[in-house]
Design goal:
Layout lengths: L8 H29 L4 H18 L1 H4 L12 H16 L4 H5 L7 H29 L3
Length: 140
């Protein structure tokens, strides 16, 4: 922590190879939920995937930024604030003229319940896979 370290590209590659497919799995789950549960139109499908993707990929930073439990490692105020603002902007965008110009639609209320459940499940899954990774693939 006192001096810069060279990035270990091999470690990053292994981490991406293990964690990356979790994101793809949740993309597929989101597609399924939008199609089969919400019977989403094209606009709702694009809106739902945008909001879910943006939210999960911003919030996963808090899980992967530390080797330990993310609840025990406080992020900087700046990281926390900008992350919350980006997720809030993404959630609110479909309700704005800019969102409509981009083809987004206002999601139904049930979408937000599904979104919260999906985000919680995704972050928990990434945390479990991360713990497995550090125990089995990249032990200390």
């Amino acid at each position: 922590m006192r001096k810069p370290h060279r990035w270990d590209i091999g470690f990053i590659r292994r981490f991406m190879t293990v964690i990356g497919p979790v994101s793809s799995l949740f993309d597929a789950l989101t597609f399924f939920l939008l199609y089969a549960v919400l019977h989403a139109s094209e606009g709702l499908f694009q809106t739902g995937w945008f909001v879910e993707s943006l939210s999960t990929q911003v919030l996963v930073i808090f899980v992967i930024r530390t080797r330990g439990n993310p609840l025990d490692s406080r992020p900087s105020r700046e990281l926390a604030l900008t992350s919350v603002l980006v997720v809030a902007a993404g959630i609110l965008l479909p309700f704005t003229p800019l969102g409509r110009a981009l083809g987004f639609v206002s999601p139904p209320a049930i979408f937000f319940a599904i979104l919260v459940a999906t985000i919680a499940t995704y972050l928990s899954t990434v945390e479990l896979v991360k713990r497995w990774f550090y125990r089995r693939v990249a032990p200390i």
